[in-house]
Write a structure and sequence with these properties.
By secondary structure, the chain is α+β, with helices and mostly antiparallel strands. The strands form seven sheets. It has an eight-stranded mixed β-sheet with strand order 4-3-2-1-7-6-5-8. InterPro entries: HMG_box_dom, HMG_box_dom_sf, PH-like_dom_sf, RTT106/SPT16-like_middle_dom, RTT106/SSRP1_HistChap/FACT, SSRP1-like_PH1, SSRP1/POB3, SSRP1/POB3_N. Residues 532-544, 634-645 have a biased composition (Basic and acidic residues).
Length: 705
């Protein structure tokens, strides 16, 4: 028999939600790693007390009970895996994997049994449901009634808020069954009560999320955030990770506490508690414990009297109480020397910290991404300017994070860091020696080599050499639009050819005239790609028929109001998801009805396009004829004006002028081909025929004389 068993896509039931992950069974015990948070549950083999196999909603499930009363539930097994698991439990854990089915009679009258940290409601010998008492947030009693309230779970779409139990009165004297029931619950429930004095208090700390200034009271099992409006009680068991991050200005420090489950205020969830400290702020701290208690509990990690920077004191106390390591930035150093990168995420500016095992973004909203959950990263061009780029991260669950507006000077440092951590890069060329090919994720760049990186490094060297140079040429080099597909040699050749052409044009040209063609060529090259966009927009005719909608879009437009009425207050994204689910579940006959409507709309569109194309051609022909006619009329009016303004002397010399007009033409009428010259001659002949008005009064008078 194998020493280990591994199962993928197993779901752990935690507070009513199913967290997917990987389950591994070995001789030493059972290990489950959450795919979302990376949290690991380790159950030693010696702690296992009972194993139960039963049918659940997601197939079959495994319930493990430990000797100290903890319960672990894992779902997603297949029925055929029971024999393999049963044999493994017998061989390595010396446990019999019992099969127990849940009672589905639907009765609401039964017996409550308390076993460890579990409340089980049974009918006969079969359990109906079980409640982990660690999920209970409050327990209140009434007349023959006990009410249990639960911690709200953010990962579950529907959360159980409370359960009420009716406890019938008994004839036994001196024993109140309601109080006995409540005491059994409270002894195991996760009810936070501020009993005793705080170990220490930090006054008026600046908190970014949740925003405000809070007094932090440190208790043995939880910390209490006390603000002007809200109070939060955070058990140390919900603290997942601690981070201490230096601000880019080197004068402030972030202290980040990752929470799972998060604290909540109304509909807002705070997965991270972020405190901002000034490095110059110092504090002298005295713990509310005697020296023996401090030494016994913290084993030298804390002392009764401490002094130093405020952020050091807070992080030191939290590390000792939570018993978790503090994560700090690794050896990454950006272009400016800081250990972070300035960027934007979801239209808010913040700082991205590359860590040894992940990335963390602060502060709005905070994001922590571990390397082991990253599928690949991508370096993309900036959408608005060429001076910045976007850094995209996609996780194995399909979630995508885009950090935009990163200065292009940071590209080389970030690329080297990602490459050193052996993360898959989406737009890396084949020459980099990738083990996997990501052809299906083809990037917009056509070049296989990383021209972006090479250009960035070269421009960085040039910028360092010319740091003190403030000439116009250096300014133009900075403002030049960046095109990765173009080589630097092409730019140099263009300037050389222009310079030589201007110098050879004549000896009388000045230096300023020599510089003009080079500058003009550069401007044309920079502005060329930007001029293409408005030209493409001009071709769209607003009078053209609109493209037909698909069957799904026709159905969505007709059903949108009904979905809104069935789900009041639904957001746009949730409405789209819900519509997709309804369309997917729709029968084939109903879909065919909308397909027919879409086909009718397509035929109407094709018919309208034919009529539109015929009409547009006719309009273009009429427009060309009207332009020619207008041009001809302008020439006739011009010829008449010249005749009226002519004197008798010019009229007597009409014949020589006619010969001259045949031989002389201005520069704008000189054409390069024969067809244009023939057209110009024809126009001149027409002008001569049209420009022969009747004799004016002055001409008749001179004739009579």
């Amino acid at each position: 028999m194998a020493d280990t068993l591994e199962f993928n896509e197993i779901y752990q039931e935690v507070k009513g939600s199913m967290n997917d992950g990987r389950l591994r069974l070995s001789r030493q015990g059972v290990i489950f790693k959450n795919s979302k948070t990376g949290k690991v549950d380790n159950i030693q083999a010696s702690e296992l007390a009972e194993g139960v196999w039963r049918r659940v909603a997601l197939g079959h499930g495994l319930k493990l009970l430990t000797k100290n009363g903890h319960v672990y539930k894992y779902d997603g097994f297949r029925e055929s895996e029971f024999d393999k698991l049963s044999d493994f439990f017998k061989a390595h854990y010396c446990l019999e994997l019992a099969e127990k089915d849940l009672c589905v009679k639907g009765w609401n009258w039964g017996t409550v049994r308390f076993g460890g940290q579990l409340l089980s409601f049974d009918i006969g010998e079969q359990p109906v449901f079980e409640i982990p008492l660690s999920n209970v947030s409050q327990c209140t009693t009434g007349k023959n009634e006990v009410t249990l309230e639960f911690h709200q779970n953010d990962d579950a779409e529907v959360s159980l808020m409370e359960v009420r139990f009716y406890v019938p009165p008994t004839q036994e004297d001196g024993v109140d069954p309601v109080e006995a029931f409540a005491q059994n619950v409270l002894s195991k429930a996760d009810v936070i009560q501020a009993t005793g004095d705080a170990i220490c208090i930090f006054r008026e700390l600046q908190c970014l999320t949740p925003r405000g200034r809070y007094d932090i009271r440190i208790y043995p099992t939880f910390l209490h955030l006390h603000g002007k409006t809200f109070d939060y009680k955070i058990p140390y068991t919900t603290v997942l990770r601690l981070f201490l991050l230096p601000h880019k200005d080197q004068r402030q420090m972030f202290f980040v506490i990752s929470l799972d489950p998060p604290i909540k205020q109304g509909q807002t969830r705070y997965h991270f508690l972020i405190l901002l400290f000034s490095k110059d702020e110092d504090i002298s701290l005295t713990l509310n414990m005697n020296e023996e208690e401090v030494e016994k509990r913290f084993e030298g990690r804390l002392t009764k009297n401490m002094s130093g920077s405020l952020y050091e004191m807070v992080s030191r106390v939290m590390k000792a109480l939570v018993n978790r390591k503090i994560t700090v930035p690794g050896n990454f150093q950006g272009h400016s020397g800081a250990q972070c990168i300035t960027c934007s995420y979801k239209a808010s500016s913040g700082l991205l910290y590359p860590l040894e095992r992940g990335f963390i973004y602060v502060h709005k909203p905070p994001v922590h991404i571990r390397f082991d959950e990253i599928s690949f990263v991508n370096f993309a061009r900036g959408t608005t300017t060429t001076r910045s780029f976007d850094f995209e991260i996609e996780t194995k669950q399909g979630t995508q994070y885009t950090f935009s507006s990163i200065e292009r000077e940071e590209y080389g440092k970030l690329f080297d860091f990602v490459n050193a951590k052996k993360l898959n890069i989406k737009n890396r060329g084949l020459k980099e020696g990738m083990k996997q090919s990501y052809d299906e994720y083809a990037d917009s760049d056509e070049d296989q080599h990383d021209a972006y990186l090479e250009r960035m490094k070269e421009e960085g060297k040039i910028r360092e050499e010319n740091a003190n140079d403030s000439s116009d040429g250096s300014g133009e080099e900075t403002d030049e639009s960046f095109n990765p597909g173009e080589e630097d040699d092409d730019v140099a050749e263009e300037f050389d050819s222009n310079a030589s052409a201007s110098s050879s044009s004549g000896d009388g040209d000045s230096d300023r005239e020599d510089k003009k063609p080079a500058k003009k060529a550069k401007i044309v090259k920079d502005r060329k790609p930007r001029k293409k966009q408005p030209e493409s927009k001009k071709g769209k005719d607003p009078n053209a028929p609109k493209r037909p909608m698909s069957a799904y879009m026709l159905w969505l437009n007709a059903s949108r109001e009904k979905i809104k009425s069935d789900h009041p207050g639904i957001s746009i994204t949730d409405l789209s998801k819900k519509a997709g689910e309804l369309w997917k579940a729709m029968s084939k006959e109903k879909k065919e009805e909308w397909d027919r409507k879409a086909e009718d709309a397509r035929r109407d569109y094709e018919k309208a396009m034919k009529e539109y194309s015929v009409g547009s051609k006719a309009d273009s022909h009429r427009g060309e004829r009207s332009k020619k006619k207008k041009k001809k009329q302008e020439k006739q009016v011009k010829g008449k004006g010249d005749k009226k303004g002519a004197t008798s002397k010019s009229s007597s010399s009409k014949s020589p002028a006619k010969g001259m007009s045949d031989s002389f033409k201005s520069k704008e009428f000189v054409s390069s081909d024969e067809s244009s010259s023939a057209e110009s001659k024809k126009e001149d002949s027409e002008d001569e025929g049209a420009a022969s008005p009747p004799p004016s009064s002055e001409d008749s008078a001179s004739g009579s004389d």
